[in-house]
Amino acid sequence: MSEESLTLVPCEPGALTPAELRTLFLFEKLTDDQLAWIAAHGCTMHMPAGGVVIREGDPADQFFVLLSGTIALTRRVGQDDVETTRTEQRGVYMGATQSYLRDDGIPRKYMATMRALDDSDFFVMSAADFGHMMREWFPMAIHLLEGLTLGMRTTAAAISERQRLTALGALSAGLMHELNNPAAAASRAAAALRQRVAGMRHKLGMLAAGKVPTDRLIALVDLQEDVIERAAKAPALTAMETADREDELGEWMEERNVTGGWDLAAVFAQGGIDIDCLNEIETRVGSPDLLDQAIHWLGYALETEQLMSDIEDATGRVSNLVNAAKQYSQMDRAAHQWIDVHGGLKSTLVMLNHKIGTGIRVVKDFDRTLPQIPAHPAELNQVWTNLIDNAVQAMNGVGTLTLRTYREGDHVVVSIGDTGPGVPDELKKRVFEPFFTTKPVGEGTGLGLDISYRIVVNGHGGDIVLDSEPGDTKFKVRLPITEPASA
Predict the structure, then answer these.
(1) What's the domain of life for this entry (predicted)?
(2) pTM, rounded to two decimals
(3) N or C: the chain end with fewer CB closer than 10 Å?
């Protein structure tokens, strides 16, 4: 935020009489003695048009009541000042409005910047005097207000912590589910591989015991390597093509009395072997007596290669999941760093794959030319998790999830869209409010978008907005590509 100095305007003590104070709705029910005390401890201040009365983030040390003029309150969102209130109502108040709360070690700061849009006059009290007055005169009200404020703060903290634990549990369960599938596949493949290798040893012993000429045995070993190489280069077949190939190979083996030929046909078809290859095998084996054993031996070799490929794919999947989990958690990275936003988006998709399911199509429209941005990647991953999870729930398991990245001026924009029913116009302004949720009781705390908003806006100096209509809802997160200026 650019530096903007406050205009120091003299405050005139005793400029308002008790009778004049009673005309302000805030003080109209007070006693004469109370009004006299306020008049003695307050002052009036005149601010010319355009002057900055208070600035967001500064210590909240004064309480203001508008006497005349027009003022505007603004909040800083990213690089922009967003006007939240504009009023000329006499008697409205702002500034150190919570100075009556007990000192809990949290610094009291102005929550907005106030400017005078035209010449304005204010009644001013120090935060200390205003807080003393409230605590002494209205002790029961202060207890109620403190209970409400502190209770909401405690509730928010407790629910936020529980939400994080629940989200962590859900992610962990999903990750374990994702890890279990390839791990189980690798285990099954390893067990089958042990059986196939034993079968190969058995067949090799039978071939050797059959007094196979040395040249034939060498040719058979060479044939094994040729078959495996051909299988590695074979094009993928459709389900229909595979079935047709199995029928052809099964009939060929049946005609030659190959034992269990129809079972072997599936292995050879999956390995990309066709009739021409079988004819070549028959020619190179030479002896019809050895063909059955040679076919079985080659079948074991093919299946062994396929099982090793399955194990490699499964263990590779496990490794990718572990890497995605490390990327998501950022457990071995600095808290703040320059990052490519696509890494976090991809790892979040992996972590939420179990929630996305098969009924939702994921579209990734990424601009790979985007520059790196300064960020807290673990916090941004929490934002992506909340937005993607909300999108998936909105679509109820069926639809299209679109993740798009692009540059907009000096910002990187991440858009997360869904084809769900959308957010009604009357609710759009409330989606970022704490505890507000449209989900059924027990399914949402109303803190996900509030946390995301604070991470993006307060933590990264960016912005997050919602565009929604039925069938097309987008949350757009704008993140600056440069470090925010020092305050």
Answers:
(1) Bacteria
(2) 0.47
(3) C
